[in-house]
Request: fold
Amino acid sequence: MQEIESDVVIIGAGASGLSAADALVADGFTVTVVEARDRVGGRLWTEEIQGVTLELGGQWVSPDQTALIDMIEELGLETYARYRDGDSIYVAESGAVSRFEEDFPVPASTQDQIQGLIETVDALVAEIDVKAPWSHPRAAELDSISWRDWLAEQTDDVEARTLVSIFVAEAMLTKPAHTFSLLQALLMAASAGSFTHLVDDGFLLDKRVVGGLQQVPLRLAARLGSSVQLGQAARRVAWDDESVVVTTDSLMVRAKRVIVAVPPNLYGRLSFEPALPAAQHQLHQHLSLGLVIKVHAVYDRPFWRDTGLSGTAFGPHMTLHEAYDNTYLGSEGGTLVGFVSDTSADAMIALEPDARREHLLECLATYFGPEALDPVVYFESDWASEEWTRGAYAASFDIGGLSRYGALLRDPVGPIHWSTSDLAAEGYQHVDGAIRIGRETATSIASQLGGATGPS
Ligand code: FDA
Reply:
């Protein structure tokens, strides 16, 4: 067993762990990052699949994500805009397919209801402290009703509430709308600045990074060099008030502090000695990852553009509920990406791969026509099957969990600190949040440890 001593040991080389490591090293502290996988980036992963570059995990950057934007600039990376010229497609519950520009092609009364709901949610979001949603005077009440039931109380227009629901349920938390609370939905919107931002794909899915968003962790890891140890799954965290020993199968790292930078559904994979406090044990069991399959279909050309389509499509009753043009910069071909969430994803997972592919390509054909049936490359990002993630996009509380346990969410336990996008305030569930919480955790540890001991 190799032994290493560092000021701080970090478990997980995703965007959050590496941001924390980078900030600590800049402050003159020594760090060791242990990463279970044989690559860095966690939920950021750019791969060549049958000769085509695909971003299998996170990829988009929105204008409010200033921590990520600053990081992209600092690392010398460039961005490009998502292709979005032309009409979008909407598939109604009846199966009717229509084109639209700005607003969903629904009756004017439904459109009015949608607008009213957006304004109501925005007003509630404005009351929420994104760093402490549990401190809202009515937090327990807002946390006791599901997003679905609250929407049903606001309007009888089923299409309006389905279309509003989807922007938090299928598109963000990737859980059915009856399984999480209004308060959790408000946190999701507050973390993006407003609910208006969440319903605006032009805002939310604005830019991509040249080389893929995994370039962020790759470049951070390159700066950190041999401090990042791949293929080292942390198994045991032995701690007392002032120190910690993290053990993998072949490494023992002694440090003053540990940052656990893995999604909370994986905390239970670590053996804490002594055990964590009871409230932490309970808190962790009320946070779970959502479920979404990201479907990539690559064609020899972006054929949908021929007829003035942007590649954007929504079908709240379709298995594949949203799709976008995801053509990689400079590519001669054209790529569509689509998403299958929560119970639709359950149904797809139950199918054999060929049947699943056939069904999902039929969804794309419903949106964009029969040419969509014959991609040159087809790939499904299946994060739920990944040992070191087990879901996507990120974690959220069950009903009542946020008001009951939220205040403990980011509290350190002795020398143990928590850092992942799943626990972030601004940028929650996104790379922006992973970076913010990583840097905040580094600042907090630096102030606890005082002067650095390592090289500056
Ligand atoms: P992350 O999970 O990335 O990193 C944790 C690391 O810990 C992993 O590398 C893991 O292997 C490692 N680990 C786990 N257990 C370990 C152990 N015991 N020992 C050692 N290492 C261990 N965001 C965004 O901003 N824009 C977007 O477009 C999208 N889209 C999107 C699509 C899909 C399909 C996914 C899955 C996710 C997104 N996201 C996104 C979300 C974004 O990717 C995510 O929030 C961050 O990458 C999370 O970074 P973290 O570092 O917090 O966790």
